[in-house]
Amino acid sequence: MPILYRPLRSHELLDLSAPDDSLHVCHGGGRNLQLAVPSRWISFWLPLKEGVELEAPDCRWLLRPGELLVWRDGPLQAGNRRDGRWLAVCGSPAAWARYQRARPGEPAIGLLPSESRCTRALRRLGVRLARVARRPELCPLDVGAVAGMLSAALTEHQRDLHALLPRCAGRTLLRRQQTLMRLLRVRHLIRRHDEGRVDLAQLAASANYSPCHLIRSYRDVFGETPSEYAARLRSERAWQLVRETRMPVCEITAALGFESQSAFCRAFKGTFGMTTTQARRLADPVPLRAGTACAPEMACAQAA
User: Fold this and answer.
1) Confidence band (pLDDT; 50, 70, 90) for 1?
2) CATH no., domain 3-162
3) Distance CA 156, CA 122 (A)
């Protein structure tokens, strides 16, 4: 089956739910447009301007320019209320499999659901695929070759996720991959709750685990419990809002779901060793990198 170029303009709706083995390269541009991707399809999302608004059955979020998303879970709705531009490459696992090549001696794992910063190389490949799919006669490379290059680059981009597979429960690679995908679903739900409060029972239900089994499996794979991960994200978000914005502390308190401003201030000082006022007065801002705790520690050392 071919690779299809599917442009979307303002006030248009494209529903890909009909059975299809094509790979769809969708280019959204405008406002009030919608794209519906069916459950279990694999889709790669690349915002270009203003981001793309995404909605899954259990959450809604904005994917911003500079980020990328690989989705292969439940159905996904995408759109723009404002004037924006984005690319999406969507297809069934069988459609993607035609363009995926495993390294010699390595098993074919396939793409895993993930959300991360987009590299310049991946952005260029995504844009190049859209251009070649739209006007194949103007490119010396076959559109299938460009799709293979994008698939290979995405696979390489996910090497860190592939390294987690040996930690997952399961006797076969397929079983371990299914375990990891369940835990990545939980991780995604935690990230989508900016206030940092998670319902363990709800998270466990999303993975078809009991709460105890989820805590044990999640810790085995990621080295921390779901609650610890949520608390870490909450702390990173607090540091970012205090250091990188002029948002009043009372508004930060509400945004992060703290019971009171005094509770937030106590938690902030207990975590970072300084008050919010001291953090904002630091002469040399040290940005906090996602997934690390070193930036606040460095900031504390500077303050000392």
Assistant:
1) low
2) 2.60.120.10
3) 10
Q: Structure tokens of 32? A: 């009030």
- 187's CB contacts (< 8 A; 6+ apart) are 222, 229
**Residues listed for the chain:** 304
Return the CATH architecture of domain 229-303: Orthogonal Bundle (1.10)
Residue 102 pLDDT: 66
Q: pTM score, two decimals?
A: 0.82
Closest residue by Cα to residue 180 from 190, 166, 192 = 166
Using only the alpha carbons of the chain, give its radius of gyration.
21
Judging by DSSP bridges, how do beta strands 3-8 and 23-30 pair with one another?
parallel
Q: Evaluate if residue 188 carries a pLDDT over 60.
A: yes
What distances in angstroms separate CA 21 from CA 96, 98, 113, 128, 209, one per listed residue?
9, 10, 20, 22, 32
The DSSP line for 213-241 is HHHHHHHHHHSS-HHHHHHHHHHHHHHHH
pLDDT bracket for residue 122 (50, 70, 90): very high
Instruction: Give the strand order in the sheet containing 114-117.
Output: 3-8, 23-30, 84-91, 42-49, 67-71, 114-117
Q: What is the CA 302 to chain-centroid distance, rounded?
A: 32
Axis crossing angle, helix 226-244 with helix 173-192, rounded to the nearest 10? 40
Q: Which two tokens stand for residue 228?
A: 């610890």
Q: Residue 134, Cβ neighbours under 10 Å: how many?
A: 15
Tokens, residue 96? 């993607």
Could you tell me if 6 and 25 are in contact, meaning their C-beta atoms sit under 8 angstroms apart? yes
